[in-house]
Amino acid sequence: MQTALIFLLIVIFAAAALVLLIDPNEYRDNITAKASEALAQELRINGELSWSFWPAFALQLEQVELDNPKNFERRNMLRAEQISVSLELLPLLSRKFEINRIDVRNAELTVVTRADGISNLDHILSGSSSAADDTDGGGGLRSGPVRLENVAITLIDEATNASQLLNVHVAQLDYYAADENLPFNIEADLSDAGNPVLSALSASGEVMIPSDNSPVRISNLILAGALSGLSDKFKLGGTVSIDTRNGLLVELRNGTVQIDGESFALEASFRSGDISSISFDFSGKSLDLDRLLRSEESTGTPTSSIKEDLEWLKTTDLNGQINIDGVRFNEVDLTSVSARIRGTAGKLTIAPFSATVFGGRIEGSLEIDLNQDPVRVRFSPIMSDIDVGALSEHFTGTRLVEASGDLAMDLEGAGLDPSALLSTLSGSGEYALNSGELLGIDIDALINQILGAQSLYSFDQVFTGSTGFSLMVGELEAEDGILNTPGLFLQSDSFDISGEGAINLAEESLDYTFNLQLKGEIKDALAAKTSVLKDGLIPLKICGSLVVPSVSFDASALIQTRV
After folding, report:
1. Is residue 267 scored above 80 in pLDDT?
2. In a 10 Å sphere around its CB, with 0-12 CB exposed, 13-18 middle and 19+ buried, how is residue 66 labelled?
3. Contact at 8 Å (CB) between 341 and 322?
4. Judging by beta carbons within 10 Å of its beta carbon (0-12, 13-18, 19+), is residue 116 exposed, middle or buried?
5. Do 407 and 431 meet the contact criterion of CB atoms below 8 Å apart?
6. Are strands 276-288 and 495-504 parallel, antiparallel or unpaired?
7. Residue 229 has pLDDT above 50, yes or no
């Protein structure tokens, strides 16, 4: 104990003697020359050099600048207000500097990747600087712990002119050595062109930086934070490789994503270039997009904002696969969701797409063309055994029928807002419904009204209720939000209906002319009442609101049938 105390006192007095006897500013030129030679980049120390005793014995460097390597247009790679280099004390007695720890505070680092894929960090990380060959046989630089505080890292890709800003609050690397797994952790925020992307970001894992130019590998990665536009924080895990030999290639393998209390599997890659590319495979059990995308500050997102969020698709090729057991979106529950997503030159295509929804199955494709103004959207679904009533109620706000059936459509509209799409909807389709009810009108009550009326012209009323049918088929033709249904045919036990008309989806109104063909006893009762309708054919007009339409006798149609 006494010996250890004596040794400690000797070290303390030696340190004090060094501070008094050695002025670090006298070594400024030697330090900058050696560092510049080791890094193959010019290092400047514009401020003072001084000793520090807490939390460790260290050399403080003020106002430090490091130039970019040759063949990089930007001058500064690093500007730091303070760099603290913790030194081993005993070697200093022989005037030798051995680095134990490096702390960088209040700094700006610019990482540039040229169009040819070469980064201004490549030669440092690979240990290809001139001093590396004199130390450990090409193993690269080596140091003790490296800590960053309040460091702004700007990431510039000259191939795409893309720029991201990573604001590092705290970052810690346990030590640095090439070809070894180095534990690290980081707390930061990420923004793109001034817009927040990731906030409250924390990351930890082990990074292996090779001594040659092979990919950097990050294992046991745990990345957590809040992604802009999402209401819940996420956590990402897996193994990441970063390859800069031919542009920037980032790959995630065996990835897991935890968000909104659910876990998903993710394989993904990103390659930079004039046209960047993203590929991914995303799968899981349940994803509630309504809750995930919900904003506490607003009830909706402007269409212009949605389009701006998708602008990156104009310079990025996208290729991905999604398989999720259950998805909730726009208050619709979908199960067994499978979608292939491709994007190129500003056009996003989801095809094939399949899911179980509204009690049936839907398959088809979706195309979004961001190059048009407003954005053009094309939707081509084929639906089987769909609850058509639930479908119509969701998209129009009105339950038009109570039936299941098959629908096939090819529709196109403008804009990304549902109301804008409905008002510009154009295209065609066909439908076939079995054993259901037409809501909003009671044809049986209408027939009884006709039979009891003093004159065919004496009724012009609103009829509510429903009309049962065994079959309902027809075609769909949409133009600028007006839905025409030529070839409409409805079949029931006591009558058939055929005709055509139009539904204004935006105004929730309809305008129809159709023939009501009575059968059996009802037909005979009508023939007994009037010889004009002895064949049981009654021409009618239906117009007004989708919810409460008005029905009247169509005399002009009757005259035409008799001519």
Report:
1. yes
2. buried
3. yes
4. exposed
5. yes
6. unpaired
7. yes
Structure tokens at 116: 């040819």
Identify which has the larger pLDDT, 233 or 266. 266
**Per-residue CA distances from 49 to 34, 46, 60 (Å):** 16, 9, 6
Binned at pLDDT 50, 70 and 90, residue 226 comes out as confident
Token pair 């339409």 in the structure block, residue: 549
Tokens of 414: 């403008």
Give the range among 119-133, 259-273, 490-504 with minimum mean pLDDT.
Answer: 119-133
Map residue 186 onto helix, strand or coil.
strand
Helix, strand, coil in percent for the chain, rounding step 5: 20, 55, 25
Q: What is the DSSP letter of 326?
A: E
3-class DSSP state of 494: coil
How far apart, in whole angstroms, are the C-alpha atoms of residue 234 and residue 203? 12
Burial class, 556, CB count within 10 angstroms (exposed 0-12 / middle 13-18 / buried 19+) = exposed
Checking if the pLDDT of 1 tops 80, the result is no
Q: What dihedral angle (degrees, nearest 10) is formed by the CA atoms of 112, 113, 114, 116?
A: 160
**Where does the pLDDT of residue 39 fall: very low under 50, low under 70, confident under 90, or very high at 90 and above?**
confident
CA distance 469 to 487: 16
Q: pLDDT tens for residues 359-407? A: 999 999 999 998 988 899 999 999 999 999 998 888 777 788 999 999 9
Q: How far apart are CA 556 and CA 541, in angstroms?
A: 10
> How far apart, in whole angstroms, are the C-alpha atoms of residue 204 and residue 189?
15
Higher-confidence position of 53 and 303: 53
Residue with tokens 């008005």: 550
Domain ranges for the chain: 1-199, 430-562
AA identity, residue 144: G
The helix/strand/coil state of 437 is strand
Residue with tokens 């030590």: 175
CA–CA dist 492, 472 (Å, integer): 9
